[in-house]
Specification:
The chain is of the alpha+beta class and about 475 residues long. The protein contains 13 helices and 22 strands. The protein is about 25% helix and about 25% strand. The two termini are about 40 Å apart.
């Protein structure tokens, strides 16, 4: 779910004057803007300045977005769109303005812990040297072990950790490695820990894929060839056509619906921002005009898996999180999570995503590594796992299964083929079947290049190169 930050709307005429110029501002001056502010949908956001890089950030949920100074009170977001803060007659910051609305400062009484800005609060960060420790066994469904005889290279892992802590790979929240059936590496950074729920963003799509397979197995859905539109008789759809009537469930889960929505093409009629702020995401998606024959070409359309989730709800008579709890999460021992699947504008900044702990992300990866079996129980049919991790389309130049990415990473000249559930910010659940390896990385590099793949191909996979 590519994050299109709502601050794109924040624009004023005076700000445009400064949009092309850099402007220096001190840490103490930036502190003036810190606080909790009103936000859309009767929510709030926080503004904070980092003592590490002297940059102002807008914080929505777990997501941080840099605001670069263009003048004293005007900042540019990641899309170079101006954001202007407002002051009262006493010269105190009291809010910020958008084209349509003014959002006021609610309170400056907010605490930002120092560890949120630093990967590790080492006593002497410049002389930090990582020491490996075996992951603790909490009897949570994950067996743990050391890295001896796993094939992993302790020297490479030490280098990776030292560089993350040094800030060479910023905003990495966690790195976990499972080899075979054991968790052998587990590290957390910044304010995140073992029990921190992590945004999954578009990695949620792969969860929807799993639930689709379960619904098919239970015969709640007859076939992946079932047509989509008959599930929504309540809609009087715009842009109706014969092509639209031919969209199948398989087209949704391979991102080949043919609807005019492609996150990689800025001239598409549909886009995530418009969908997120609509009253009904499914109707928004199905209202779009067709651009292609269903099943012909992959396009990254976040409305497709949302529509699939709603079909599961209709077929099962349960909301999607409840269906997941009963059939997948509880059997895997996943009891601490957050998932508000309500596809309308109330979820505009939360994207209907699931939040999971990294250890539970690792369990989900293990489920696919073990052909749908977890704790000796077949939770997902093995054939569904095989089909999900097989190529059915190409999306943004990458092979694509059933809401899973089929990616390769090159490590020192050796190519490794993996399957990935992934989301904006650097959320990754990688399954490398040949190496019997699951790698989980979480992060906060929203709308920017994540170092997740770089870490994997530089410090983890080279250990398995044939010498």
């Amino acid at each position: 779910m590519k994050k299109i930050f709502v601050m794109v709307m924040l624009i004023t005429t005076s700000a445009l004057v400064f949009a092309q110029h850099s402007y220096k501002i001190t840490y103490n001056d930036l502190k003036e803007f810190e606080g909790v502010y009103q936000y859309i949908n009767h929510t709030t956001l926080k503004i904070a300045v980092s003592p590490k890089d002297t940059i102002l950030y807008a914080i929505v949920n777990q997501s941080r977005y840099p605001l670069k100074p263009a003048s004293r009170d005007v900042f540019l977001n990641t899309y170079k769109v101006p954001v202007e803060f407002l002051r009262n007659k006493s010269n105190t910051v009291v809010g910020y303005v958008t084209r349509k609305d003014t959002f006021r400062l609610i309170t400056k009484n907010v605490f930002f812990p120092k560890q949120m800005w630093y990967p590790r609060m080492a006593a002497n960060a410049e002389n930090y040297h990582y020491q490996y420790t075996v992951p603790a066994n909490f009897h949570d469904g994950l067996k743990t072990s050391g890295i001896v005889k796993t094939g992993l290279d302790s020297t490479l892992l030490n280098d990776m950790m030292n560089k993350i802590v040094a800030g060479d790979y910023p905003n990495v929240h966690s790195v976990l490695i499972i080899k075979g059936d054991k968790l052998v590496f587990e590290e957390y950074f910044y304010e995140y820990g073992r029990d921190s729920l992590q945004e999954q963003r578009s990695a949620t799509k792969s969860m929807v894929s799993a639930l689709t397979g379960i619904a098919l197995h239970q015969k709640l859905i007859k076939s992946i060839k079932e047509l989509v539109l008959p599930y929504f008789p309540e809609y009087k759809l715009a842009n109706y056509s014969d092509l639209k009537s031919r969209i199948t469930i398989e087209d949704l889960i391979t991102n080949q619906s043919g609807l005019n929505y492609d996150a990689a093409y800025d001239k598409s009629v549909g886009n995530e921002t418009a969908m997120n702020y609509s009253d009904d995401w499914v109707k928004y998606t199905l209202d779009l005009p067709m651009i292609d024959t269903p099943g012909r070409k992959g396009r990254y359309d976040s409305g497709n898996p949302i529509t699939m989730g709603r079909i599961i709800e209709k077929a099962s008579g349960q909301n999607l999180p409840a269906f997941a709890i009963k059939n997948l999460l509880t059997p895997m021992g996943i009891t601490y999570f957050k998932w508000n699947f309500k596809p309308d504008k109330s979820n505009a900044e939360d994207f209907c995503q699931i939040y999971l702990r990294p250890r539970d992300m690792a369990k989900f990866g293990m489920l696919y590594l073990n052909n749908g079996v977890y704790n000796n129980r077949q939770l997902i049919p093995a054939e569904w796992v095989r089909q999900s991790l097989s190529k059915h389309s190409t999306v943004q130049g990458v092979d694509y299964g059933y809401l899973w990415w089929l990616k390769y990473l090159d490590a020192n000249g050796v190519r490794y083929y993996g399957k990935a559930a992934q989301g904006n910010g650097g959320q990754k659940i990688y399954v490398f079947q040949e190496q019997q390896l699951v790698i989980v990385i979480t992060g906060g590099n929203y709308n920017s290049q994540s170092p997740s793949d770089e870490l994997i191909k530089t410090y983890i996979l080279p250990a398995f190169n044939k010498k």
